[in-house]
Amino acid sequence: MQKIIIIGGGAGGLELATDLGDKLGKTDKAQITLIDKNSYHLWKPLLHEVATGVLDEQVDNIFYAAQGQQHNFEFTQGTFTNLDRDQKQITIINHQDETLTIDYDILVIAIGSTSNDFGTPGVKEHCIFLDDQNAAIRLRETLINKFTSFCSIIDNDQSSEEDKIRIAIVGGGATGVELASELPHMVETFGACGRNKMCSDLLDVSVIEATDRILPALPEKTAASITKTLEKQGIHVLTKTMITKAESDGFYPKEGDTIKADIMIWTAGVKAPDYLKEIAGLESSRSNQLVVKPTLQTSRDDSIFVIGDCAYAMQDNGHASPPTAQAAHQMAKICYENIINILNNNPLKSFKYTDNGTIISLHDTAQGVVKIAGKSEMSVKGWFALIIHRLLYRMHQASLLGIFKAIRFARASKVMYKTKSTSIFSNRD
């Protein structure tokens, strides 16, 4: 029986494990094993909603073990540490700190990405990253603790009109923009939960971008419209601002004054984990991604596939596919078909990324573009765009759980959203 190991349970890895389990695991044609350092999955594009209390991670989590039981794959919780291509073995450290060696016939690496600080001094020491669910929860606690301490200053009449909670976000991509747009609402919700002196006027939020505009993946007109929406929320959008270092009091740009901040968040740039760089002699890019052929097999070993953010998949236009959930989903489908083709001795398919557009959520509205067949482009905004944005997540859930269970998840999330904001922000000293 073929042993297929998938490392990483993100958008691509979990979809692949589910599909292979339904096809091969169910009929005992292959043993499918998913490995992840966490015990549960949450869609990464929604981490900013976990950080701001909009999304209840306890409701929307998908536990790998339960998913595996229902879809005929095994789950092992552990951290990937080594690869031996000659022996076709991987090494992991499980959640009990035991070292395990696991054999494979086909290996799929889908471990995602981390934030890229580009070696900027002080960023690792002073900034909060938004790489996974645990980081999002830590950010939420940091924000709430800051709000609480600021309330104490107000209650004791120790604040002045100039005093504000200063939050600076480096990175004008989707994550930074969506996080910034949720912060004013988070403060208003905090104020509605017994902290009636708290309001969004007490926030001083800045989005800092090194290039000449935010959201480079979107048309310039759409990005400009989103910039105006942010500014109406009281958010400062600072473009052409290159950060040279971070210190405890804020960010230091190449030109201009220090951007003072009480909370510093870094969402600029992504890279694959450092340990992937040339692991086991595999070819890697400057951002540590593993170079793959059009079939998504690594350039130096056909028994190893790479999908998602950690894959460097060059396209016909001369650019690599973007590190997005959209690309990971498309890679998972091609990888699934190619693994089936290998087992059936059929020709393999090539991965061609199709850009279906980008929608940016802005709390109670959204803006972006939708592309038809990756070509004709249509701008969308308002409630219609927000529905599309929400639908993308529910489609991801449906691909994993089935449509009826995904509908139940959506209903549960709606109920919990109405009650959880109070529980998050109340009972704070």
TrEMBL record:
Q: Name one GO biological process term.
A: aerobic electron transport chain
Q: Would you tell me the protein name for this molecule?
A: FAD-dependent oxidoreductase
> Which prosthetic group or cofactor does it need?
FAD
Outline the extent of the FAD/NAD(P)-binding domain. 3-332
Instruction: Give the organism, scientific name.
Output: Gilliamella apicola
* Entry keyword annotation includes Flavoprotein: yes
Does this UniProt record's set of keywords contain Protease?
A: no
Q: Which UniProt keywords apply?
A: FAD, Flavoprotein, Oxidoreductase
Q: Which family does it belong to?
A: Belongs to the NADH dehydrogenase family.
Q: Which Pfam families does this one have?
A: Pyr_redox_2 (PF07992)
Question: What is a GO molecular function of this protein?
Answer: NAD(P)H dehydrogenase (quinone) activity
